[in-house]
Amino acid sequence: MDRIAPKEDQAPEPELETSLRKEQKLEMMGALAGFIAHDLNNELTVILGNVGLSLDSIDSDHTLYEGLVEAQQATQRCVEMTRALLNLGQSVKPEMRPVQLDQLLKGTERILRKVLPRSVPTKFAKHTHLPSIMADSNQIQQVIMTLAASASRGMPEESLLEVQAKNGPKYITISISVSSVGRLQENPRRLFTPLSPSKTSYEMGTFGLARDIEIVRAHGGSIDMARDATSVTYRISLPAVSRSDQQAGRSKTLAEGSACVLIADDEGPVRRAAVRILLSKGYNIMEASDGEEAVRVFTDNPDAIDLVFLDVTMPGLSGLEALDQMRLIRPDLKALVASGYPVDVPTAHFLAKPYSPIALVRRIQDVLNSVDDTARVES
What we know:
The chain is of the alpha/beta class. It has two domains: 93-244, 2-Layer Sandwich (Heat Shock Protein 90), CATH 3.30.565.10; 253-378, Response regulator (Rossmann fold). It has helices at residues 15-57, 65-87, 101-115, 137-153, 209-218, 243-251, 268-280, 291-300, 319-329, 357-369, and strands spanning 97-100, 122-124, 132-135, 159-166, 171-180, 193-194, 222-227, 231-239, 260-264, 284-288, 307-311, 334-339, 349-352, 377-378. The strands form three sheets. A six-stranded mixed beta sheet has the order 2-4-5-8-7-6, with helices on one face. A six-stranded parallel beta sheet has the order 10-9-11-12-13-14, sandwiched between helices. Strands 1-3 form a two-stranded antiparallel ribbon. Strand 7 and strand 8 form a beta hairpin. The longest helix has 43 residues, at 15-57. The protein is elongated.
């Protein structure tokens, strides 16, 4: 007769196994979010492209103009959400470009007021004429939001959240403070401690900061923190763009091109939107629906094509594999690759999907004017 083990002999489920199952579920959720965000990025690329072209074709007093602008702005907000999903938990290079800090803070305020508990009142200082910064606006916005959430969790319900920015000669400082109402100003001289990933821990106020610190460091900045009995404050320091650099950036115009560009993307609507955008600026265009066709088109026209614009992920031959084959014919071939995933491409310039018409044209011109084909990241 088989012996039945008594209940006390049956070991409980190990905590490690339970922890692993939770981790696997989180990984699956993260992967699913990434797949959804990638597909949405393709659709948003089509919307941004066609809305942008429509706006370019009508006058500002047209009856449809205001509605198209609102559609463009709504689509851009969707872009920010999909990029946040794709960036979640990943170490991603920032997509650096000049960012108007006052506009960034206004957008962040709108989101924070919706996501934070109503018991946490928020106060955003009104800023005008703040300097521009070279930054990935989505990543910096993400840092501000996570710091605000982290700080607010450790304070009483009657706490006040304050976000403000201050100009400096070389750096601008964004402060995120949570304090008991009316108490923050009573202790203006607080000792700020620089934060690094190795110093972050699971204690209140520092959990989850490693990624935020990594993002800010990639921008050439730093994070420090001060805390006392009634408040906690995070400060983000970021390099300001010099006035001469700002003026140089504003003086750039998008001249029409005359180069020949080969566009390869297996998503027909995405490809056709890119074709229409570049045709509207005077470029000569060749098309391919996948990597194999792109290689065939290039092989037949190796001297006529000035630049190839390739989707990274295509069935069969990927964009990067197709580029490798093309460069066996022309090693100096200039290339711009696009993807809905945040990827690091060492062999070509990169453009993140979804992109606007102006972003695509600017990147095409940048690559055509580049001396070498060192990869750069723009949006």
